[in-house]
Design brief:
Layout: H1 2-20, H2 28-45, H3 58-73, H4 79-91, H5 103-133, H6 135-138, H7 142-153, H8 157-174, H9 183-203, H10 206-225, H11 232-248, H12 251-261, H13 268-282, H14 293-301, H15 307-311, H16 319-348, H17 352-367, H18 374-387
Protein name: O-antigen ligase-related domain-containing protein
Pfam families: Wzy_C
Transmembrane segments: 7-27, 33-51, 58-76, 82-100, 112-132, 152-172, 184-202, 208-224, 236-253, 323-340, 352-371, 377-394
Length: 405
């Protein structure tokens, strides 16, 4: 019992280190070690004798089992690494139920979220300063500016925008009762929001911005159903921010121009989705050797007259298609089931922060293999560890019995 008590004490500082590690994102080894350490600490405080498979945790367990089966069936030198990543994504978060049995975690969860917000805000400030300093090179050309950022900062725009989007949702949750916040916190929150918004506008991932817009619409609908009055100023502020993003980024105007003058079939996204679907069909929706996926996609790209497809290794760019390729319809079904469980339970238990984050991820999965790169694994793991336990903590619906010390 003393050992478990000491481990519980270690969990909180480890979680702080995990969220702060986002600031040194380029040191991926640190994030990997902290994710593994967090997982091990959660395993140590888990009482496996109380573990019961039920409707709520079954899709997470099934997703891991199916992925493990295929990774072992088509064994390669990367199999153990990918199995470990799947364990972190689908199994370890289930043990976060025990975090919600630790009073100190419940009390400071929002502070941990605030530490993450602070880290990402500082990152965005750096991106803004880099952007300003780089003006002589990009001359406000969005594509060139983003290329320079990605080249020198070594992080893909979609992933950093996802990190920023999560930070914005955390910030909105942290200051949900804005009127009761202190003056210092209000000023600090405004400055952080400006920094985060600036980062979003500079990198401008359309899918993440669309996801945030859908989240806002859903949250407004929920507020309306709960008969919570939304002031005119709040509505105008939301409309102003959306308009600001569209006007300050030439990307949306360029997209309209592209769609009006070219066919979508010329895009890399169309090619990657078309070829992925072809491979899925050829595998009879049963999954295939994950080691050969990229090779077969490259072969399928040959008829397309696209420079990017020839130069770069373009993956399926869709997490749902990626899982269909790797584990067939069974993995696809269990993964969708896990998303459904989270959406259903978060609405039922009014865990609207987790609901919003789940919606954002579900949309991000449409245009990117989020759970393939470490940057995606990190942010997904972080959110699941902090929030998944919240929908299991109700005694009548928990995956564990409450441990009595």
């Amino acid at each position: 019992m003393k050992i478990k008590a000491n481990i519980k004490l270690l969990l909180i500082p480890t979680l702080y280190l995990l969220v702060i590690s986002s600031f040194v994102y380029y040191l991926e080894a640190i994030q990997s070690l902290l994710m593994i350490l967090t997982g091990l600490l959660l395993l140590f405080i888990t009482k496996f004798s109380d573990f019961k498979i039920n409707f709520k945790n079954a899709p997470f367990i099934a997703s891991f089992i199916i992925l493990t089966f295929y990774y072992l069936l088509y064994f390669s030198k990367s199999s153990f690494k990918t199995i470990g990543e799947s364990f972190l994504l689908f199994i370890v978060p289930l043990f976060s139920y025990y975090l919600y049995q630790i009073d100190s975690f419940i009390k400071i969860r929002k502070k941990i979220q605030f530490a993450y917000i602070s880290s990402i805000s500082l990152l965005c400030l750096y991106f803004l300063l880099f952007y300003i300093n780089d003006i002589p090179n990009h001359h406000f050309d969005w594509y060139l500016a983003r290329y320079n950022l990605e080249f020198y900062c070594k992080i893909h725009g979609t992933y950093i925008c996802l990190w920023i989007g999560i930070a914005i949702l955390f910030l909105a949750d942290y200051i949900s009762d804005y009127k009761k916040c202190s003056k210092k916190l209000k000023i600090c929150s405004i400055l952080m929001f400006i920094s985060l918004l600036g980062g979003l506008i500079i990198y401008n991932s359309r899918n993440i911005l669309l996801g945030l817009f859908i989240v806002v619409l859903l949250r407004l609908t929920i507020l309306k159903r709960e008969k919570i009055v939304i002031t005119t100023n709040q509505k105008l502020s939301i409309a102003f921010i959306i308009l600001l993003i569209i006007l300050l980024s030439q990307r949306y105007l360029d997209t309209i121009h592209f769609l009006s003058n070219k066919s979508f079939t010329n895009s890399t996204r169309y090619a990657s989705w078309t070829c992925s679907l072809k491979l899925i069909y050829d595998s009879h929706f049963l999954g295939m050797d994950y080691n050969l996926i990229q090779q077969k996609l490259n072969e399928c790209y040959l008829p397309f007259n696209n420079f990017e497809l020839k130069k770069f290794k373009i993956n399926s760019h869709n997490q749902y298609l990626d899982f269909l390729l790797k584990g067939g319809f069974l993995l696809f079904f269990t993964f969708i089931w896990s998303l459904f469980i989270k959406l259903k339970e978060t609405l039922k238990q009014k865990e609207y922060l987790y609901f919003s984050i789940t919606v954002l991820f579900a949309i991000a999965f449409i245009t990117e293999n989020i759970l393939v790169r470490q940057y995606g694994i990190y942010i997904y793991f972080l959110c699941e560890i902090l929030l998944l336990g919240s929908i299991f903590r109700n005694k009548n619906h928990s995956i564990y019995e409450v441990e009595k010390c």
